[in-house]
Recover the amino acids of this structure.
């Protein structure tokens, strides 16, 4: 009877077998996980945030444990767009045969445009996900994602040089997420991904210093789920483009809750780190949970909580 | 790497703060001494990385020190309790480079991985020399277990309450000859060993980890041979590649 | 040996026996808890948010469970400033004999000033804590706490009509908490309390509707601790007035971590709801935990993580 | 109100989804039938409110239905497991108003509090009539236990598989005379009873709770006698004060 269930969803013309997508930075370029299971069962995956230049990232320690979550300050460690294209994508292609989501970061508008233009030419890229949570080095270091204007500027610059759907990935560290999403939509974004990590900090009582070398970092994991659901709900009301929801998702129930809030697809981040089979388990549980709640076609519940 | 459930067979203190836990389960992913496992504990988000002290086809032995809430919780677990564990993590020690008389140096909770390494070297027909460092006599553990392998065991304690008074480096400097070194312990000890050893060697590092299997870049460090993830490309690094 | 430990801290001239303060909205006017233990062991407590008019608050359900936290949308239910003064405070005085923190809310600048002026005359009030997380009905409903100007305006209006120390309690749903705290300090605030709840939402999978009748609500509990620590740290760097830290505190260790981040005193909210003895336990654990970390005088660790 | 640890003595299914749990511990804070306890479960932030079904000096009996993750977890607990419970919560039923032949109506998981109430009324020398409503025969529980109190027990099932086919209201309407009513069950049932009963009565409500002891205002509702907290001023309200 599970046969009649439809888990397919469509993001800007791209149909995914299911809405489950490992989130950028928690799934590398896929091949670590491909040793564990056939990752082609995934809807897609968002690869490690890539920048124009290679980056080592921040000093160690980069990880702090929290109640129901963790803080990371990896600092966008990646080999740079050229090596991603020449070395990582070929390795990825060996193990993943579906369109992938290219996660691109930058520290200036030009840098975003440069990397996106390059990645746009890669056949396997289905969607370009532009992470605007990075500090804008030309404007006092406030993140692009905290101002509607800056987020829109990045969107326009990227759209001007690309042909593929562009999703802007928003930071939750803002007062009015809807206005930022709307600004991106108006600037031509094809979709919105949210949320990135909340800014957080832990202090080591023994050393009396922040646990993370960089002091603050990005807080994610199940703890942030209610904030993520709320923001997905608000953005769904504000825009007419698809939303990819994420933040604390760790079960098939969470996927459904995100979709009811308004997500067309759902990313899973921190959960992959503590359970490498998290996405596989979620995908396998989905049919049972759909049946439990009387859902036969997943795409029909998108935004269901707004009715 | 494998994820599976283990059942606790034994969980007993060896000293006032160091425990031995013996678990039964699928150890097939473990391929070398110096590898580690990553343990999920109820109520904690991140897993806890602990070195493999010893294993056979169906049991795993770990030694852990209670230092925080997670290891405190571990110490309360009872036989028959079950734990979700990722096994076969990290590169482990390479015994091919050891020569005939390598010296194995363990400091504090760096002692555990030396046990399986010593066992493997003995099985390969080599004659490892073992140097174990502790603060004081009451903190010494696994001396007899090493001796039972038929290897030469030296103990150093900071207060001289047993063995040589001083540090493991004092013992190592006094050794007449050794062909290679392997070590695990606190970073200052590793650094001192890197400086005072006269041969090449392998050193095992600790770092705070997000995943423990190479996915998150939470544990990356720079080496002379490029960026390495302590959890996947380590925890064992070669003396020559380390940037202190 | 526990005798030599000093847990006293001072907020704007008011010395507290210890830094532990139940947070507004989770401790009523104290007498429910006074049935359980002698609440005079507390440093102080912040009473239920009070408004000019009596308020019933929001529709039911008002509570949703979350991983390591809860969402509430009580909606500032309170009998109004006059009845609080005539009925609640006399009852409170029977059971609590130390200076109390008066938590005041409002929906316009006038309303804040009106209520604060009245409560300022009450002898037992040691500090007035002004909750600026409420929507500003005169300005499109955005919370006073999301703009430095609006928060400063409330601060000035309240300071003009009061004699007691005024602490502004900030909302965490902002991009730049430091600038808001600074604006309050510049407007004359005597201290800053933070954080109030994060905006969150849960959806009931069975009904496919938000769990909370009001859809969104305030998310708090241990899950939000890393966000709170981070904001306390940022505000401590930005201002020279004392900070009362809160958000997810549930143990003596958490109190110390908040103080290292920069808090002079620490409030405990959601933890009181699931463990009515939470504050008592924290106070009793403090000496042991101080000893464990080699702390003899609590006030000396305030802001310790900034060194 | 009291917070204390209880030890599970028994935890067994009565039907496919309703369990009885018997716990030993300090019940001294429980003063009336219709009160509830609030149970802390590992891994869940909020406590779970469950009515007192019965108690004596040292044991507490609760009946609960598995409806979500928390009650699912409860169903997995074993004898000897310990639970942190707040006891003595809520006002409970007032038996002083009952008259000689009150009718007690329990629907589904509203049945449990009726048990201790019936027991108390019998002990007071009254002759309660008990009406229990379920969906179907397989879901019926505690019929024998009520009968063992020597009271008159009527069952209504929606599908007629046992007792009267229909709702508890059908049974109540058919009763020739009763002096008062007490009820607990789903809100639509409470409302229907409020409409069809010919006497005054007391109704017990459920609401999502933050604290369960009056501190958070999470469960406040409006009544004709002012705002009331279901957890502290309720869960039992008088028919006359309820605003539907
Ligand atoms: C590869 C590797 C092998 C290890 N082998 C052993 C061993 O065999 N025996 C042993 O006793 N200990 C070993 N450790 C250290 C052990 O992981 C920590 O002592 C343990 O994680 C502390 O957990 P806690 O909850 O008690 O401490 P807390 O301080 O409460 O932990 C908070 C967080 O910090 C992390 N953390 C704290 N200390 C360390 C540390 N030294 N290294 C890495 N993460 C840390 C924890 O994992 C957790 O995420 C090893 C560490 C690594 C990286
Ligand atoms: C005063 C009172 C007495 C009760 N007595 C009984 C009883 O004797 N037997 C019994 O089986 N059930 C009883 N209930 C209902 C019981 O509390 C819920 O079924 C239970 O909390 C569900 O928890 P869950 O984790 O399985 O469900 P989930 O839906 O996963 O719970 C999510 C959250 O919603 C709350 N919640 C869900 N349903 C209810 C509900 N109906 N009432 C209040 N909160 C709810 C939970 O407590 C939790 O906070 C009573 C409720 C109240 C308020
Ligand atoms: C270790 C780690 C690294 C991350 N790296 C990136 C990144 O490179 N680019 C990006 O857009 N988001 C990155 N994120 C954010 C996640 O993609 C995701 O938005 C966030 O963690 C919330 O989801 P979660 O709660 O499921 O983890 C990272 C998160 C983690 C935990
Ligand atoms: C049920 C509830 C009611 C609250 N009511 C108020 C209030 O009236 N005024 C106020 O300033 N904050 C109120 N708060 C916020 C708390 O005082 C506190 O700032 C917040 O919950 C974060 O702390 P916590 O994580 O310890 O709960 C309320 C919180 C809860 C859970
Ligand atoms: S801990 Fe994740 S890569 Fe090493
Ligand atoms: S649940 Fe807190 S007042 Fe009723």
């Amino acid at each position: 009877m599970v046969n009649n269930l439809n888990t397919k969803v469509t993001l800007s013309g791209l149909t995914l077998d299911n809405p489950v997508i490992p989130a950028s930075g928690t799934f590398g370029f896929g091949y670590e996980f491909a040793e564990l299971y056939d990752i082609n069962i995934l809807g897609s995956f968002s690869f490690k945030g890539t920048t124009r230049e290679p980056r080592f990232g921040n000093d160690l320690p980069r990880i702090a444990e929290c109640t129901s979550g963790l803080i990371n300050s990896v600092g966008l460690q990646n080999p740079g767009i050229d090596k991603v294209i020449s070395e990582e994508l070929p390795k990825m292609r060996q193990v993943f045969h579906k369109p992938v989501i290219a996660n691109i970061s930058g520290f200036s508008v030009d840098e975003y445009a440069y990397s996106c233009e390059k990645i746009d030419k890669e056949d396997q890229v289905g969607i370009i996900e532009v992470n605007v949570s990075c500090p804008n080095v030309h404007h006092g270091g406030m993140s692009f994602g905290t101002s509607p204007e800056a987020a829109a500027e990045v969107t326009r610059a990227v759209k001007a040089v690309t042909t593929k759907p562009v999703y802007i990935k928003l930071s939750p560290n803002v007062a009015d997420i809807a206005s930022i999403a709307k600004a991106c939509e108006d600037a031509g974004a094809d979709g919105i991904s949210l949320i990135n990590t909340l800014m957080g900090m832990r202090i080591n009582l023994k050393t009396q210093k922040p646990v993370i070398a960089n002091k603050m970092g990005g807080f994610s994991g199940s703890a942030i789920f209610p904030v993520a659901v709320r923001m997905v709900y608000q953005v769904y009301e504000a825009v007419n483009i698809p939303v990819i929801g994420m933040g604390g998702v760790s079960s098939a129930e969470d996927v459904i809750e995100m979709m009811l809030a308004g997500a067309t697809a759902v990313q899973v981040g921190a959960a992959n780190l503590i359970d490498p089979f998290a996405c596989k388990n979620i995908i396998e549980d989905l049919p049972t949970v759909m049946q439990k709640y009387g859902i036969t076609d997943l795409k029909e519940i998108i935004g269901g909580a707004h009715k | 790497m494998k994820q599976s459930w283990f059942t606790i067979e034994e969980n007993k203190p060896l000293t006032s703060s160091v425990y031995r836990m013996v678990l039964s389960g699928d150890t097939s992913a473990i391929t070398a001494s110096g590898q580690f496992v990553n343990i999920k504990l109820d109520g904690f988000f991140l897993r806890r990385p602990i070195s493999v002290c010893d294993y056979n086809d169906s049991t795993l032995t770990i030694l852990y020190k209670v230092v925080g809430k997670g290891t405190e919780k571990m110490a309360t677990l009872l036989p028959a309790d079950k734990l979700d564990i990722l096994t076969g993590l990290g590169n482990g020690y390479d015994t091919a480079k050891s020569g005939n008389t390598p010296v194995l140096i363990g400091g504090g909770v760096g002692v555990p991985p030396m046990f399986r390494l010593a066992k493997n070297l003995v099985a390969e027909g080599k004659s490892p020399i073992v140097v174990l460092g502790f603060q004081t006599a009451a903190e010494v553990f696994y001396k007899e277990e090493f001796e039972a392998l038929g290897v030469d065991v030296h103990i150093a304690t900071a207060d001289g309450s047993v063995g040589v008074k001083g540090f493991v480096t004092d013992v190592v400097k006094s050794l007449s000859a050794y062909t290679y070194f392997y070590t695990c312990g606190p970073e200052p000890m590793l650094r001192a060993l890197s400086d005072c050893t006269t041969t090449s060697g392998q050193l095992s590092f600790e770092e705070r980890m997000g995943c423990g299997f190479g996915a998150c870049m939470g544990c990356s460090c720079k080496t002379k041979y490029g960026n390495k993830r302590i959890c996947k490309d380590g925890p064992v690094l070669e003396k020559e590649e380390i940037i202190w």
Chain B has two domains: 2-89, 95-206.
